[in-house]
């Protein structure tokens, strides 16, 4: 909601100044996360009155180890969207289903893998390559991959693990960089400008932020999306775990009298859509959930503030 308000204000100011975006041929959304179809569509809709063509808005994916891994671009076809079974995804399996199928999750491609860039999907624990039906960590090999972080602590072993690592079997001579993100590669049915099908990269989420609950892997953005749909007064939400309990923090955009009403709505939607029991529901004021300069939620900082009792919540409900 906050992002939407900012964009509306910016759009209104640009409109007042007579700005025309019809000449913009490419507007690339560079993200270190899963591309959100609804977010891209909302962005295009907001700036439509300024002449921005929806075809000009495209997605890209980069990470700290490599800033340019894939790009959708405007010359190619519209980004493809696949629907995967959420139950299989929790087992690190990728099973495509039809649109509208129960427990289906839409995933939009991050773009076509750029020339000179090699991508492989790897089991982050065994460091072995995975097949097409598995979800794994995205590793990249490219001449423009970063060589390391600048650090004063001398953690050379950590740098080597991220920037110059090798497969445990298979193509062991190639050096790879670990992005820290889970995803999979699929050959799309859409044709590019040359008339060929292209391999598209689908990013699911950050490996470090996944939630391990009941032996299954959950991605925070999926639970947060469900929570945000539970009530119109929920402006934003974030989830994390605490002593094997799922904690949901929701920002209340309405009256404080609504805080108590949100608790059963939040717990019910998480139980119905993800089969998880929420251990703690925290209702806070807008702006409490920390966001970095790239617009990413800082869930671990939020967790630290929760443990230090620094959130100043409106209401807290425990279901322990």
Automatic annotation (TrEMBL):
Gene3D superfamilies xrefs: 3.30.300.30, N-terminal domain of ligase-like (3.40.50.12780)
Designated name of the protein: AMP-binding enzyme C-terminal domain-containing protein
Sequence ranges assigned to domain AMP-binding enzyme C-terminal in this UniProt record: 209-312
Lineage: Eukaryota, Metazoa, Chordata, Craniata, Vertebrata
Signal peptide residue numbers: none
Family per similarity comment: Belongs to the DIP2 family.
InterPro entries, alphabetized: AMP-bd_C, AMP-bd_C_sf, ANL_N_sf
Record SUPFAM superfamilies: Acetyl-CoA synthetase-like (SSF56801)
């Amino acid at each position: 909601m906050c992002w939407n308000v900012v964009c509306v204000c910016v759009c209104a100011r640009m409109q007042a100044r007579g700005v025309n975006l019809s000449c913009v041929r490419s507007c690339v959304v560079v993200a270190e996360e899963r591309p959100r179809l609804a977010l891209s569509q909302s962005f295009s809709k907001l700036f439509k009155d300024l002449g921005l063509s929806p075809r000009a808005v495209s997605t890209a994916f980069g990470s700290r180890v490599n800033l340019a891994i894939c790009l959708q671009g405007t010359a190619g076809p519209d980004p493809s969207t696949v629907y995967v079974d959420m139950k299989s995804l929790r087992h690190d399996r990728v099973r495509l289903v039809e649109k509208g199928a129960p427990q289906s999750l839409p995933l939009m491609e991050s773009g076509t893998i750029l020339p000179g860039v090699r991508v492989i999907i790897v089991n982050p624990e065994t460091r072995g390559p995975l097949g097409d039906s598995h979800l794994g960590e995205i590793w990249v090999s490219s001449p423009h991959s970063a060589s390391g972080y600048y650090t004063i602590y001398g953690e050379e072993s950590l740098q080597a693990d991220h920037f110059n690592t090798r497969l445990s079997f298979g193509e062991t001579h190639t050096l790879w960089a670990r992005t820290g993100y889970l995803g999979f590669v699929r050959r799309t049915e859409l044709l590019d400008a040359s008339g060929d099908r292209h391999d598209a990269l689908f990013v699911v989420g950050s490996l470090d932020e996944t939630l391990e609950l009941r032996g299954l892997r959950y991605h925070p953005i999926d639970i947060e999306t469900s929570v945000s749909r539970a009530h119109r007064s929920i402006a934003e939400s974030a989830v994390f775990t605490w002593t094997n309990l799922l904690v949901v923090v929701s920002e209340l955009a309405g009256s404080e009298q609504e805080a108590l009403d949100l608790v059963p709505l939040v717990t019910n939607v998480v139980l119905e859509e993800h089969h998880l029991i929420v251990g703690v529901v925290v209702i806070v004021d807008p702006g409490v959930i920390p966001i970095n300069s790239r617009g990413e939620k800082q869930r671990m900082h939020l967790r630290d503030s929760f443990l230090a009792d620094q959130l100043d919540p409106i209401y807290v409900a425990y279901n322990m």
